[in-house]
Amino acid sequence: MENLNNNVVKRYNPENISKPVGNYSHVTKISRHAETYVFSGQIGIDENDNIPANFNEQVTNTMSNIVKILSSQNLTPDHVVKINIWATEEIDWDHFYGIWNKVFGPTPPSMTIAYITGLGLPELKIELDVWAAG
């Protein structure tokens, strides 16, 4: 599967290795003429600067914030190269992938997930580190 929505970022899964165990691409290739964007970790804060206590609400807000920060640079989710996910609680993958799939579609970016004991603020339960090219 290859991301064909732009000519800067290509995503695919080689057939000579096992399929991804989640909704991500094993390989993301960036055109040599692209600019690289590195964003600060996006968190589950809402538009009123509130951080909900509920993990899934933080997930929803975080994904919305990713779309907004990409848009601020005239980028779309198709430009995302890699996302590192840092979570302090077990992820509800049904909820997470429901939003992830709407944002990234059938060719999601490369992904790494880590469970950790804490993030920058005690109320944070998830943070996504986003890299893009455009």
From TrEMBL:
It comes from the Bacteria. It holds the Pfam family Ribonuc_L-PSP. SUPFAM superfamilies: YjgF-like. InterPro entries: RutC-like_sf, YjgF/YER057c/UK114. Gene3D superfamilies: RutC-like (3.30.1330.40). This is Enamine deaminase RidA (YjgF/YER057c/UK114 family). It comes from Paenibacillus eucommiae.
